[in-house]
């Protein structure tokens, strides 16, 4: 398989898809789902009810799939990765519950958010429960190295969320700070999800680092595309309301670039918009026009392709086969979602 990024898969004449990875790990994912279902149970009925709303909400389960696919890539034949993949998914789900409270979101994956249905206190507390479950699973694995990787990722994600919170409504946020934010809040868990497979497979440090680089660069590319999609898609495609980032005053890369390249008048608009004074539908439409006229989306996606290529390159030292092909196509899929 070619080690270069392309928008269409020439082998099949179709857009890149996550389906090869889904097919690769279907059997393993059934084992992970059984762990998830078992460990989200509680004698307090609200906990599995609320957790189940999000866990069963149609997400791609990309992060645990990356753990499973990485294990396949390495030829691992044990079963430790099932509980660890479930731990990864619990970390991710907990952060989503907390994020929706912080952002005041109404939609997640096209469904009403848990905080809208059950309220903010319940969402925060069930998120805490899932974090606790994830750490139980890590401890049960018995590897201090795995515990260190996943606990560090959890701390980094929280730091990234706080960094994003303090950057909110600040249109002067630098591209460097933005990349720090998404590297923490999104890419850290992608990286850890891949790296732990090398630990349980007892592979050399170099392979750990390669899988970490694959996941980290994939995560950055994934978030860059998500942030671009907020200005070029709709709720049906995105599973959330179009313009959510705009109305929440998030200084994502499309805004950062449009602000930097805009006229003095444009900058006045962006400052007012990010501060919440220009948040109507007409304002959002104007924001889209400014982003298009400054080519901010094109350049955001160009950066996404750059990180995507770095992710693919990180797999260069691994033998070819079904797992490697699926992992490469997952990167291509991450970028192709914007087209």
TrEMBL record:
Pfam families the UniProt entry points to: polyprenyl_synt (PF00348)
SUPFAM superfamilies: Terpenoid synthases (SSF48576)
MF (Gene Ontology): transferase activity
Keywords (A to Z) from UniProt: Magnesium, Metal-binding, Transferase
EC numbers for this chain: 2.5.1.-
Top-tier EC class: transferase
InterPro entries recorded: Isoprenoid_synthase_dom_sf, Polyprenyl_synt, Polyprenyl_synt_CS
Keyword Coiled coil in annotation: no
Recorded family membership: Belongs to the FPP/GGPP synthase family.
Listed name of the protein: Polyprenyl synthetase family protein
Source organism: Sphingomonas hylomeconis
């Amino acid at each position: 398989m070619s080690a270069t990024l392309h928008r269409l898969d020439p082998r099949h004449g179709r857009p890149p898809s996550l389906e090869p990875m889904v097919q690769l790990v279907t059997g393993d994912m059934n084992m992970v789902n059984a762990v998830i279902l078992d460990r989200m149970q509680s004698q307090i009925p609200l906990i599995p009810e609320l957790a189940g709303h999000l866990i069963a909400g149609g997400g791609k389960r990309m992060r645990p799939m990356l753990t499973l696919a990485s294990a396949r890539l390495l030829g691992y034949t044990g079963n430790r990765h099932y509980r660890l993949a479930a731990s990864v998914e619990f970390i991710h789900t907990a952060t989503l519950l907390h994020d929706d409270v912080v952002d005041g979101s109404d939609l997640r994956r096209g469904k009403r958010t848990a905080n809208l249905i059950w309220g903010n206190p319940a969402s925060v507390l069930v998120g805490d429960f899932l974090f606790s479950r994830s750490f139980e699973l890590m401890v049960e694995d018995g590897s201090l190295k795995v515990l260190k990787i996943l606990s560090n990722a959890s701390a980094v994600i929280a730091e990234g969320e706080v960094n994003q919170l303090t950057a909110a409504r600040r249109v002067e946020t630098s591209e460097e700070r933005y990349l720090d934010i998404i590297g923490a809040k999104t890419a850290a868990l992608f990286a850890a999800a891949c790296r732990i497979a090398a630990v349980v497979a007892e592979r050399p440090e170099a392979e750990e680092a390669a899988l970490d680089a694959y996941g980290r660069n994939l995560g950055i590319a994934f978030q860059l595309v998500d942030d671009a999609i907020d200005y070029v898609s709709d709720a049906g495609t995105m599973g959330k309301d179009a313009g959510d980032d705009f109305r929440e005053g998030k200084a994502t890369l499309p805004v950062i670039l449009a602000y930097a390249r805009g006229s003095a008048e444009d900058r006045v608009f962006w400052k007012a918009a990010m501060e919440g004074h220009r948040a109507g539908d007409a304002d959002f439409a104007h924001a889209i026009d400014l982003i298009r006229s400054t080519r901010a989306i094109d350049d955001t996606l160009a950066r996404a392709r750059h990180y995507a290529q770095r992710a693919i390159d990180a797999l260069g030292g691994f033998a070819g086969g079904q797992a490697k092909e699926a992992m490469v196509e997952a990167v291509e899929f991450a970028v192709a979602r914007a087209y």
